[in-house]
Design a protein that fits this description.
Residues 181-208 form a coiled coil. The protein is an alpha/beta fold. 45% of the residues lie in helices and 18% in strands.
Length: 488
């Protein structure tokens, strides 16, 4: 890695948006600039999971402050991620398109498990001493992540409870106690119910908390310092908050006024975690998801792309024929570079990964392998991948041969016909699992489609392929872009 490399990570969370600008100096990450906008996006989700336009507009307005920090960086040094609320929102497409226009950078919606992995990576970046078993806790605005691991995570959990969503659910209008109902106790019980069967995560492990709720509680308990949270102190604080009538009545030292509206809900979740997982003390990490994103970006550019490891693991677990995956991948990329000599890294990566996984469904079924393979890729928690990346790869796997099924396009998912054609042709050329050079094939793009020219002598040696190519021409007749085939 060069002596100095600069990266930007922007986390579009359910409670707040956070920016981190950092660089690596002699392989050590140095934080250069941080910024935060408290937007409470989760407040805008209604019962049908639609995002309220007024809150969406408030969030979009806040994004303008982050744009200057992103403009000077290369595109592959920036990663913007959306978490729980943007995962859940049924009408997120319009917001995401507008936000991308403001930021000038794409937004990746990540799964809860991918969020947990990035959080753990960030916390480990600040950890010192020899590797040891740790349990990392992050209470966000819409979800709570818990991870158990050593140098790498072993178990990851993402629970649908957060300080904003619980505030909306249990502390309407800021009320903590209403008549005889104690909302703090109700919120704590609900959190403990979500934690059932997860008690093992903290056993024999050092517990580390990170992000807003944990830091806020630590400051209240420790004279403004981010030091250890002890169970006996947390018990007293929980009892004090439960005895209040309204969040406005919370006279707590070092409580940030921006944090006040969601403090009771976050504390109820944190206390439930301590009680249910039998935690006696929690260390507090200054790092979290944003630092994890920066380390992930640096890894992608310097040979440590977690996504490549994930694909390799899937191939191993699915008993994929690695030789066939290589054949198809090499030929598909050769064809893509004929069409697009300057094809970007992202296009090439997605095509290669689709080729490596195009037979993953054979482990479950021969007749339905394409459908099952695509479903596995689309729905699985794949470390390193954004949900839209999985959808794009799944589309290629689903349509590797046969009738081309038109997809429902949405934000971040824009099927690329060039990649699709190249994968389909590569599958035809190597249908019999035989190595074949493509020097006799010439694929060009035309105004309304594609022209495939193949030397007649090559076709005479491979008559079955000629028939499959004629069928392929028929499949593309119903597509917006047509395929023409000519023997020369």
């Amino acid at each position: 890695m060069p002596d100095s490399e600069r990266y930007a990570a922007l986390d579009l969370g359910s409670n707040s948006f956070h920016l981190l600008l950092a660089e690596f100096r002699d392989q050590r990450m140095v934080r250069l600039h941080t910024d935060r906008a408290m937007v409470r996006l989760a407040e805008g989700l209604d019962a049908e999971r639609n995002l309220d336009p007024a809150i969406a507009e408030r969030a979009l307005t806040s994004l303008h402050r982050f744009r200057p920090a992103l403009t000077e960086l290369p595109a592959d040094h920036i990663r913007v991620v959306g978490t729980n609320t943007l995962r859940a929102a049924a009408n997120a497409d319009g917001f995401l398109e507008a936000a991308e226009g403001i930021l000038g950078a794409p937004i990746e919606i990540i799964s809860g498990i991918e969020e947990a992995r990035l959080i753990y990576s960030g916390v480990m970046a600040a950890a010192d001493g020899p590797p040891r078993l740790r349990c990392v806790v992050d209470i966000g605005g819409g979800s709570t992540e818990l991870v158990r691991g050593r140098e790498i995570p072993h178990q990851l959990q993402s629970l649908y409870m957060g300080c904003v969503s619980f505030s909306k659910r249990f502390f309407a209008d800021g009320l903590i106690t209403e008549n005889t109902v104690n909302h703090f106790n109700r919120a704590r019980r609900a959190a403990r119910a979500e934690l059932q069967e997860l008690q093992h995560l903290a056993q024999h492990a050092e517990v580390v908390g990170c992000s807003g709720t944990v830091k806020s509680v630590a400051r209240v308990l420790n004279d403004g310092e981010l030091t250890e949270i002890r169970r006996k102190d947390l018990d007293r604080l929980a009892e004090q908050v439960a005895g209040a009538k309204h969040v406005a009545d919370l006279n707590l030292p070092n409580l940030d006024e921006e944090r006040r509206p969601v403090f009771a809900a976050g504390l109820a979740i944190l206390h439930a975690i301590f009680c249910e997982l039998d935690i006696q003390s929690m260390q507090v990490s200054p790092y979290a998801i944003r630092e994890g994103i920066v380390h992930d970006l640096a890894g992608r550019l310097h040979g440590g792309d977690r996504r490549a490891d994930t694909v390799a693991s899937l191939m191993h677990d699915g008993r994929v024929d690695a030789a066939q995956a290589r054949r198809v991948g090499d030929s598909a990329l050769d064809l893509l570079l004929q069409l697009q000599p300057l094809a970007g890294v992202k296009d090439q990566q997605r095509l290669r990964w689709a080729a490596q996984l195009h037979e993953i469904g054979l482990a479950l079924s021969h007749n339905n392998s394409r459908k099952l393979g695509a479903y596995m890729i689309e729905q699985a928690d794949l470390a390193g991948f954004a949900k839209t990346e999985q959808e794009n790869i799944a589309h290629l796997v689903r349509n590797q041969r046969g009738r081309i099924k038109p997809p429902r396009e949405h934000y971040g998912f824009h099927p690329n016909p060039d990649r699709l054609l190249c994968l389909r042709l590569a599958c035809i050329v190597h249908r019999d699992r035989t190595d074949r050079a493509l020097s006799a094939l010439q694929l060009t793009a035309e105004e309304d489609g594609y022209q495939l020219r193949i030397e007649r002598e090559w076709l005479e040696k491979n008559p079955a392929i000629e028939e499959l190519l004629q069928q392929e021409v028929e499949h593309w007749r119903s597509h917006e872009r047509k395929l023409r085939f000519e023997a020369v």
